[in-house]
Design brief:
It is a single chain. By secondary structure, this protein is mostly helical. The chain has one domain. It is built from 10 helices and no strands. Helix 1 runs antiparallel to helix 3. The longest helix is centred in the middle third of the chain and has 24 residues. It is elongated, with a radius of gyration of 19 Å. The N and C termini lie far apart (58 Å).
Length: 205
């Protein structure tokens, strides 16, 4: 294997958060509207400010993981983002609400599900694996595409990133099958009531 497993994870996290940041930055107003729909911030809090904070935070995470610099900032920021997003999704799932996941901006058609929480958990686990490397990780040792910028290193990163990414995407379907937890009766009732309300709105409109 031409590159270490930690290097592959660091590269993948940089790419994922970089793409997520760019997708949100293309239409920040729409992303801000999506943030407001989650109904988790105090009334009167400007969702556009939250959207900007999220976009900038993801930019820092992507830049730190791809450059190997400021990982002492980018690493804890990654953990905070994953935990906050997972909590936001989990709360709205328990409310029985069907909302866009906003993972890659406000235009994404995918809605939140237990698979969304699972994917965030994968990202979190990836960052924790990197942190287990201690000072070697924080000092940028795993940033082999910059310290040893050869074709073999870069091709190894791409190949193994595709393999690991494909495995992660495939395994992300498991929560949709198992639902991670057995849905409670009140949650099912809330989803049914919401679906009926949405159908009534469409009929009246």
């Amino acid at each position: 294997m031409p590159t270490s497993f930690q290097s592959v994870i660091q590269f993948m996290l940089g790419v994922v958060f970089g793409y997520s940041c760019l997708a949100k930055a293309k239409d920040p107003a729409r992303f801000a509207d999506g943030v407001a729909d989650y109904d988790l911030v105090p009334e009167g809090t400007p969702s556009r400010v939250i959207a900007i904070v999220v976009i900038v935070s993801e930019a820092v995470v992507a830049a730190s993981h791809l450059s190997g610099a400021w990982l002492n900032v980018g690493s804890p920021l990654t953990i905070v983002i994953c935990i906050v997003f997972a909590a936001a999704v989990g709360i709205n799932l328990r409310r029985g609400r069907e909302l866009p996941c906003l993972c890659f901006g406000g235009r994404a058609e995918a809605t939140i599900s237990y698979a969304t929480v699972y994917r965030l958990a994968l990202l979190l686990c990836g960052e924790l694996i990197l942190l287990s490397g201690g000072e070697a990780y924080l000092s940028g040792t795993f940033t082999v595409w910059l310290t040893s910028p050869t074709v073999s290193v870069f091709s190894g990163l791409v190949v193994w990133s595709v393999v690991v990414g494909a495995a992660a995407l495939w395994s992300a379907r498991v929560p949709d099958v198992l639902k991670l937890v057995r849905p409670c009766a009140s949650c099912q009732a809330a989803r049914t009531a919401l679906a009926l309300a949405q159908a009534k709105e469409r009929a009246n409109g």
